[in-house]
């Protein structure tokens, strides 16, 4: 009867080995919501007692690789940026909005199943030729024209400033 280190109090050494510490719970959550309620909890006695042989073997191992990692993580490749110079802009001399031609295989059959009756089309551009009501049409012609003007003015200012 009494106290033995790592065990606890009582006749059969079944009592608490560490005194209870009172800690205010965070927030208004339920019990156990913010982690373990007893941070000083002692595990079973077999887990607490560590042999001297295991302590010495860990010291003599000498490996420099961290033991907590399962495997080395591969780094994601960095994103590469392509910067255009003034000469590149001068060489291109056209914008994306002027080149609206599609480049694809010509022998494809495309079946449009969006309506009641299926339509067989020759290319993807003919999908856009669907007849819409006047309420559904959203014309972006002015917007694309304005974007073209902005891009052209920027290119001209780059050309004149050089």
From TrEMBL:
It comes from the Eukaryota. GO terms for biological process: spliceosomal complex disassembly. Residues 1-36 form the G-patch domain. Residues 52-61 have a biased composition (Basic and acidic residues). Residues 24-78 are annotated as: Disordered. GO terms for molecular function: nucleic acid binding. One of its GO terms (cellular component) is U2-type post-mRNA release spliceosomal complex. InterPro entries: G_patch_dom, TFP11/STIP/Ntr1. PANTHER family: TUFTELIN-INTERACTING PROTEIN 11 (PTHR23329:SF1), TUFTELIN-INTERACTING PROTEIN 11-RELATED (PTHR23329). This is G-patch domain-containing protein. It comes from Rotaria sordida.
